[in-house]
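tool_call predict_complex ligand=uridine-5'-diphosphate
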Amino acid sequence: HEFNKFEEIALAERTFLAIKPDGVQRGLVGEIIRRFEDKGFTLVGLKFLKVSRELAEQHYDVHRERPFFAGLVDFITSGPVVALVWEGEGVIASARKIIGATNPLSAEPGTIRGDFGVNIGRNLIHGSDAIETAQQEVSLWFKEEELVSWQPTITPWLHE
Ligand code: UDP
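tool_result ok
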């Protein structure tokens, strides 16, 4: 199967996800990764780490002035996190749908937050919200050499 340039660019969209400490503690790592694999997205980066305060504060910099900022940084640094980069056509917006609304009580059943969460401060997973933030977050969390470009053999069965 040959791809033209336009198809390659569309398929190369990337987003950053992080399974937060509550998702790890609750044993939802496999379940969460499964959902993105099942949808047909391609895993290009994965690491398991304890997040430093510096990284947490940089990641949530837009929320620095919000009242929940300190608690959010404490929470994200409280236990290990799974950092992920996924690739595929429309992956940024699609991942946000798979994740569901910020407040798990408002999130639709069938979404990760809707199925597993009840509290906004324990909403299990982060996903980039736009192209610019996705690019910033991927490069904040991963070095270029930690990302793996590859093409799954099922690609022609997912994309015409
Ligand atoms: N958050 C919180 N309390 C709030 C709002 C947000 O603890 O009242 C946390 C929550 O973990 C959320 C994160 O801050 O996921 C970032 O908020 P944002 O509005 O960007 O939500 P998201 O993009 O994660 O859905």
